[in-house]
Design goal:
This protein has 149 residues and is mainly alpha-helical. The protein has five helices and no strands. The protein has a domain of 54 residues: 434 Repressor (Amino-terminal Domain) (Orthogonal Bundle).
Length: 149
Amino acid sequence: MSISTRIKEFIDKKYLGNNSALARDLHMKPQALQVYLLGSSIPGGILLTKLAELGCDINYLLLGKDGVSKVREQSVEYKAELAGIHSEIEELKKVVQELQAHNYILMVNNEKLEKENTELMKSEALLRGEVLQLNSVNDKLEKNNKIKG
């Protein structure tokens, strides 16, 4: 069954077959409506919106019974697919939270290591200073030993 036939069905049900009454409600001349009733043209978005506002089932108008059934079947399939995707998203959120917690622990450990490294560098600097002092004392002792000896 064609779109034009389904428009005629709508006119028969809602307007008791009065094409002019539908044309009036659509704010168009009956001759303009005739191109859709003859199948010469297919209604566009604005006209479909107006028909929907008047109570026409646009899905049925465009797709027919079989098409509406297929759309419903696809809708059920999409809902199931979306549920699966939603479940996967929730799992990914958990993984992200675990990674964030692990990252936080790594950051804390890194800060501790940086502090320890700073302390070690300070200790190393102190030890180098002491070694320099000991070398200086050793040099003086060696000079004294050469002078005495």
